[in-house]
Structures are given as structure tokens and as C-alpha cells.
Design goal:
alpha+beta; Phosphorylase Kinase, domain 1; seven-stranded antiparallel β-sheet; 7 helices; about 40% helix; globular
């Protein structure tokens, strides 16, 4: 059995619920092994499932004794009596998962932690790679062994930003996850665009917005704010000395104009 990518995307929720026949499961797993972006979406969908499970148990503690039904996956709606409280709760979570599309985005980390990381990157030039153009910086990242999915440097000159340099995150750099941080400057203030594959921790954002169907989540920190989103199987975080509304507007402008 072979699956095209469009069909595979539709089957991901059923795969998470272990509700696919053996041949479809094998075909989907074969495609996941070849498609990092699809695998990333599966990871995010599982994160949504875990978040729903946690919230269901918090809102309905009387169901704690049946929490094993949530592992390793939420059961299919048809396996639960439709009129029981548990059936209604699980049905709601399963229905929510089925509405998650290619733009599914779980919650991410609090602003203080991200703002501190961005400040440490923006204020320390010692480990910055520098070049005259984004294209040249991308070449330097590739030469340093950074994967094509992370070796991305956007040209933000049309928005008034000048490119300062880029820093490789993770050992031997900084940050909890491998990735890159691109440093920009505008009106004497520095902003950082961080790109990584690993999903950040789950903390509710201070404010949300959308751009081109992608959910943007804004966090306020001690030294400014950070906006983060998931797109193309990678996490992007843009932060600097501005409030959440200003940063959201910057990200929306960039995403709608590209």
C-alpha cells in the first residue's frame, strides 16, 4: 500500500489514536521515515494529545482512575459509549485533534526564559559569524555543518533591520536545543530570530495572533518580548526590546509580504 502526502496528513490523527489497519500503518511509517516535515507534524500532534489528556484530567478529576485509557493514545470515539461522561470528554479531545491541520501548533515556553536567551545572544558578539549578505551567511552555516532546515537567514532590510551576524546554538554554543540565532539591528536596538527543530516547553502565551494560517504566540519577558511559531517542521522565535503587539506586527508583516 502506498500513500501520497495529502492522504498521510489526513491519517495522522488516526495513527496517533492507533486506529489504522496494519497496511496503512506500515505505509504511513514508511513515508514518515522519508519526510522530516511530516514526522515533525506527527510530533506536534502527539503533543496536542498529551496536552488534552492533561487538561481533561485536571478538569474532570473523577476520571483519574481511568487515566490509563489515555495511554499510549486517546481511544477512538467509536470505542467509547457516546453518552458516558468519559465518552463525551474523549470525544471532544478526539474531535479537536481531527481538526488540527498542517498548521498545528502546540503551546510553547514562557517569555522570561526566551528573552534571557535572546539577550545573551544579542549582547555577545564573540561567537557571531559575520558576512556581507544573508546568502553568504547561509553558506557559512552549511560549511559549519548546520542542516539545510536550520541554515536560514532572512533579509529583513525592507523592514528597516540590518543584519549583524548569526550564532550557532547548542553545544558548544548556547541554548537548550541545537539551532541558529540570527542577530539584527534596528534604530540601535538588537533583535534575534532563533530557529530550531525541537519543540519548546508548553506554557500558555500572553497573547496570540495568526499570519498566513500560522498561529503566532507572544510572550512578555523582563527585557522585551518574544513571538514564536511552528512552520515547515521547524520552530521560529523572534524577540527583542519591544512589546508583544509590536513584535506580533513585525512577524505578521514579514510573513504576509514574503
Amino acid at each position: 500500500m502506498k500513500l501520497d502526502r495529502a492522504t498521510a496528513l489526513q491519517l495522522l490523527p488516526c495513527y496517533v489514536c492507533e486506529d489504522l489497519p496494519a497496511d496503512a500503518t506500515q505505509a504511513l511509517e514508511d513515508l514518515l521515515a522519508q519526510d522530516p516535515d511530516l514526522a515533525g507534524r506527527l510530533h506536534l500532534l502527539r503533543s496536542v494529545r498529551e496536552l488534552h489528556a492533561d487538561r481533561l484530567l485536571k478538569q474532570a478529576p473523577e476520571l483519574t482512575g481511568r487515566a490509563d485509557a489515555l495511554e499510549p493514545a486517546l481511544p477512538s470515539v467509536r470505542r467509547v459509549p457516546p453518552r458516558s461522561p468519559w465518552g463525551l470528554a474523549v470525544g471532544f479531545a478526539a474531535a479537536t485533534m481531527l481538526t488540527v491541520s498542517a498548521a498545528v501548533t502546540p503551546p510553547e515556553p514562557a517569555g522570561d526564559t526566551l528573552a534571557r536567551l535572546h539577550s545573551s545572544v544579542a549582547g555577545d558578539d564573540a561567537l557571531l559569524l559575520r558576512a556581507e549578505s544573508p546568502v553568504a551567511l547561509v553558506a557559512m552555516l552549511r560549511d559549519a555543518g548546520v542542516s539545510p532546515q536550520l541554515a536560514i537567514v532572512h533579509d529583513l532590510s525592507a523592514m528597516g533591520f540590518s543584519l549583524v551576524g548569526v550564532r550557532i546554538l547548542g553545544p558548544p554554543g548556547v541554548g537548550a536545543h541545537p539551532g541558529v540565532a540570527i542577530v539584527y539591528e534596528k534604530n540601535g536596538q538588537r533583535f534575534v530570530c532563533q530557529i530550531q527543530l525541537a519543540a519548546p516547553t508548553s506554557v500558555a502565551p500572553d497573547k496570540t495572533a495568526t499570519a498566513e494560517g500560522v498561529v503566532l504566540r507572544a510572550y512578555t519577558g523582563d527585557s522585551g518580548a518574544v513571538v514564536s511559531w511552528n512552520q515547515g517542521g521547524r520552530w521560529c522565535l523572534f524577540g527583542g526590546p519591544a512589546d508583544t503587539d509590536a513584535l506580533l506586527a513585525m512577524v505578521q508583516m514579514r510573513m504576509t509580504s514574503s
